[in-house]
Design goal:
Blueprint: E1 3-8, H1 12-22, E2 28-34, H2 37-47, E3 51-54, H3 63-73, E4 78-83, H4 88-97, E5 101-104, H5 109-120, E6 125-126, H6 131-144, H7 155-165, H8 170-177, H9 181-195, H10 200-209
Parallel strand pairs: 1-2, 1-3, 3-4, 4-5, 5-6
Helix pairs in contact: 2-3, 3-4, 7-9, 7-10, 8-9
Length: about 220
């Protein structure tokens, strides 16, 4: 089954170029386009794409606010930021809003295709040139806290959290741990409650800070 994609960008030439390239992809179905944030939210609610490619700097409603509204209404929709901005304020803003991917507009098109496939399967995709910014921010946060509190999670919950952050779904984790998918869903609910974290992107950040997984390109 093809991955349904909605493309949002206020630059017509760039949008038309990406449309042409996306239409050539066998496993990707471009189901719509939008030229501003409000239109992106409206068309996402209407068309229910699997993945939204979201520009950040747009009129009417910027990409960060549009992403927040989309994730609040349809949390299952995955968002990839595609931006000229590499400033960590924009990167953090999009990830906090719920985006699972972040690419710069000078990235190769094949990297965008990789990102679409990754986020579709609940995996985070951070483009080259952005990873260093995120790692630097994490290190700065870690250095602010000289003492790290003990994890509030049990050993099994840490194991489930690591597997979730690696992009595995409840059924896959259940198979690996020889338990039922319902048990995994219960673990995930307890993890989010204990950590006061309510989306996958922030769970991934926590696992990196806790040293449960490493961030790779």
């Amino acid at each position: 089954m093809s991955i349904k994609v909605l493309l949002t960008d206020d630059h017509k030439i760039l949008r038309e170029g990406l449309i042409s390239l996306l239409k050539k992809q066998r496993d990707i179905e471009l189901i719509g386009e939008a030229e501003d944030g409000r239109e992106a939210v409206r068309k996402t609610l209407e068309l229910k794409p699997d993945v939204v490619i979201m520009d950040i700097g747009m009129p009417e409603l910027n990409g960060i606010e549009a992403t927040k509204q989309i994730k609040a209404a349809l949390p299952e929709v995955k968002v990839i930021a595609l931006s000229i901005h590499s400033d960590k304020r924009f990167v953090k803003g999009m990830l906090k809003a719920g985006a699972l991917g972040y690419l710069l507009k000078d990235s190769a098109f094949k990297e965008l295709v990789k990102a679409i496939n990754a986020v579709h399967y609940n995996k985070m995709y951070i483009g080259s040139g952005i990873t260093d910014i995120i790692m630097e921010d994490y290190l700065q946060q870690l250095n602010k806290d000289t003492s790290t509190p003990d994890s509030p999670l049990s050993e099994r919950e840490n194991e489930v959290l690591r597997l979730l952050a690696e992009g595995k779904n409840a059924k896959q984790i259940a198979s690996l741990l020889n338990v039922s998918p319902k048990t995994i869903e219960t673990h995930r609910q307890h993890i989010m409650e204990k950590l006061n974290i309510h989306n996958l992107a922030d769970l991934v950040k926590y696992t990196i800070q806790a040293g449960l997984i490493s961030l790779e390109n």
